[in-house]
Amino acid sequence: MTPFEAIKHEDETGTWWSARELMPVLEYTEWRNFVGVIAKAITACLHSGQESVYHFVDVTKMIETGKGAVRAVQDFHLSRYACYLVVQNADPDKPVVALGQTYFAVQTRAAELTEEQQRIELRDRMTGMNKSLAEAAYAAGIETGYEFAIFQDHGYKGLYDGETAADIKARKGLKKSQHILDWMGNEELAANLFKSTQADSAIRRDPGADANLVHHRIGVEVRQTIERIGGTMPEKLPTPSESVQQLKRREEKRLQAGPTLWDEED
Fold it and tell me: Are residues 73 and 194 in the same domain?
C-alpha cells in the first residue's frame, strides 16, 4: 500500500484526502509553505475549466497542542484530481513527490474513465426513455413534432424553474445543432432521467390527463426533491467541457489502441 492510499478517506461525501495529512507524506514541515503549493494547484484547477470548490473544500480542523489544549487550523478536503494537481505543483526534487504524481495520475484517470462511462450510459438511457416518453405522449394526444417540443418544454420548465430547452441551450452557450442532453454531466442527466421516467409512468397510468401539465408537475416535484435533500439545482450544475459524443469517440479510440498504463494499474 502506498502512503497516499493509507491516508485516503471514504465517507458519504465520496473519496477525499486531508491536506494536513498529505503535507507530511510529501515531506513538507510547514503549513505556510504547503498552502502555497495548494494555491498553485487551485489556480491550475481554474485554468483547466474545473470548479475548484468541488475539488478543494476549505474546512476547519481541530488539533491538539501542548498540555492537551486544542485549536482550530485550516485544512482542505482534496479530491483525487486536487491531489494530482497538488503533487504536480510540489517540489519535484522530493522522490515521494514523483511517487505521488504517478499514483494520483493513475487514480484520477481511472476515476475519470468511470465517470465518463457512467455519463455515456446515462445519455444512452435518456435516448431510450425519450422514445418511450414520446410514445406515451402520442397516446395522450401529443401528435406533431411541434406539440412534442412544447410537451418537452413543460418538463424542462418544471425542473429548471421556468427555463425552456432553448433557454438551457443558450445558458450553456451551445450551438443550434448541439443537443443539450449531450452537454449535461452525470448529476444533471440523472435528474432528467428521473423526471422523464416518472412522467412516462404517470402519463401511461392516466392517458386522459393533460400530458403537458403532468410533465410540468413531475418536473416541479423532482426539483423540489433535489432542494429538499440539499442537492444542486440543475441550472447551477457545471456544463462539461466535452460532449457525450466526444467522449464516445475518445473511448472508441482508446479501445482500439489496446491496453495502456491506466488499464494495468491493478
Answer: no
Q: How far is CA 184 from CA 66, 164, 189, in A?
A: 51, 15, 6
Residue 255: the pLDDT is: 64
Spatial distance between the Cα atoms of 72 and 24, rounded to a whole number of angstroms: 19
HEC sequence for 213-225: HHHHHHHHHHHHH
pLDDT in tens, 81-121: 899 999 999 998 888 888 888 888 877 777 777 788 889 98
Is there a single domain that holds both residue 138 and residue 57? no
Name the maximum alpha-carbon separation found in the chain: 77
pLDDT recorded at residue 95: 83
E strand or H helix that includes residue 59? strand 56-64
Q: How confident is the model at residue 223 (pLDDT cuts 50, 70, 90)?
A: very high
160 and 34 in a common domain:
no
Question: What is the distance between the alpha carbons of residues 183 and 229, in angstroms, rounded to a whole number?
Answer: 24
Domain shared by 44 and 140, yes or no: no
Q: How many domains does the chain have?
A: 2
| CA–CA gap between residue 41 and residue 86 (Å, rounded) | 5
Cα–Cα distance measured from residue 46 to residue 40, given in angstroms and rounded to the nearest whole number: 10
